[in-house]
Design a protein that fits this description.
This protein is 42% helix and 17% strand. It has a seven-stranded parallel beta sheet with strand order 3-2-1-4-5-6-10, with helices on both faces. The protein is α/β, with parallel strands linked by helices and 359 residues long. The chain is built from 13 helices and twelve strands. It has a domain at 3-203 and 237-263 and 302-324: 3-Layer(aba) Sandwich (Rossmann fold), CATH 3.40.50.720.
């Protein structure tokens, strides 16, 4: 696979937009391939923002198409028109709180939508030449939440950990993972699956923990923390994730799953403290203190206690490891949000977001 023509689904979302920037930027060249075209398919729901792609307005290799992964006719047209030889499937509803409030969109996008995309890709794969079949890859991007919750002393999630999803979001993603596996083993569609830990970095929707806390610290608003703040997550800088996704697509073994994690377990309350300190370091005039800002609120239903990713397989087989520590990634992220307050405020106004989310 030397000349890549890639269909990215969900490419105006948080991880998707970072992936598109990565694929079309200088960092991707280290993978030893030429990326001649990225077709970016996004439905532009609340989590998709064209402003995240502003820097690519004059990039001829980037083609944005507004559309639904469940629209098989549109997807088939894009695959054929652009002679796509790789699909990187990131389109998903991903906010756990929203899945608790309204599960149906998560089932329809994450499970039914993935079925339509896999089935359309299979038909396209079957009509390709022998060389075209060999040259094709489908990367299915998932989450560590499909594995459920860990106790304090449990080993980290590995690729063989049994699935045990605890929210409508994670259940819908677990179902999509099973579909992806079935399309490999039943139909020989060349699929590789990845499961990642909590991402952070630029272009993240303002309801998510890190951009939410940054904005609340700037404004001096209360920071609601779920339960006692002891829920543990493994934090992964989004560009490290994008590099892992690209490696998995190019070099991953068909039918295999690769866990991508940041090797950085932290309690939510410690992440909140770190964000406050990072904002203060950039804006010392604010002089925010955790005591003034943090307040504890009732835990959300089905809140998983701990996630942790064992990413030794992708390191061993594909040579991947995170390059950013939490400290370096946090500094980059906080600076980005401080430099792009208009990006955040425009989204808040557009979707009339409540500034009441919790960590």
């Amino acid at each position: 696979m030397t000349d890549m023509r890639i269909l990215v689904t969900g490419g105006a979302g948080f991880i998707g937009s970072n992936l598109v920037h990565y694929l079309l930027g200088p960092a991707a060249q280290e993978q030893g391939v030429t990326i001649s075209k990225v077709v970016n398919l996004d439905k532009l729901t609340y989590a998709g923002n064209l402003s995240s792609l502003d820097a690519l307005k004059n990039e001829p290799r980037h083609i944005f198409v507004r559309g639904d992964i469940g629209n098989s006719e549109l997807v088939a047209h894009l695959l054929r028109e652009h002679d796509i030889n790789a699909v990187m499937h990131l389109a998903a509803e991903s906010h756990v709180d929203r899945s608790i409030d309204s599960p149906e969109p998560f089932i329809m996008t994450n499970f039914v939508g993935t079925f339509h995309l896999l089935d359309t890709a299979l038909k396209y794969h079957r009509e390709r030449s022998a060389a075209g079949k060999k040259d094709f890859r489908f990367l299915h991007v998932s989450t560590d939440e499909v594995y459920g919750s860990l106790g304090p002393d449990d080993p980290a999630f590995s690729e063989t950990t049994p699935y045990s999803p605890n929210s409508p979001y994670s259940a819908s993603k677990a179902g999509s993972d099973h579909l992806a596996r079935a399309y490999v083993h039943t139909f020989q569609l060349p699929v590789v699956t990845t499961n990642c830990s909590n991402n952070y970095g630029p272009f993240q929707f303002p309801e998510k923990l890190m951009p939410l806390i940054v904005q609340k610290v700037i404004r001096g608003e209360k920071l609601p923390v779920y339960g006692d703040g002891s829920n543990v997550r493994d934090w992964l800088y989004v560009e490290d994730h994008c590099r892992g996704l690209t490696l998995s697509m190019l070099r991953g073994k068909i039918g295999e799953t690769y866990n991508i994690g940041g090797k950085c377990e932290m309690k939510n309350i410690d992440v909140v403290h770190a964000i406050i300190a990072a904002v203060n370091a950039e804006r010392p005039e604010l002089k925010r203190t955790p005591e003034d800002l943090i307040t504890y609120v009732k835990d959300r239903p089905g809140h998983d206690r701990r996630y942790a990713i064992d990413c030794s397989k992708i390191g061993r087989e594909l040579g991947w490891k995170p390059r950013e520590t939490f400290e370096t990634g946090l500094r980059k992220s906080v600076r980005w949000y401080l430099d792009h307050e208009k990006w955040v405020s425009d989204i808040e106004k557009k979707y009339q977001l409540q500034r009441l989310g919790s960590a």
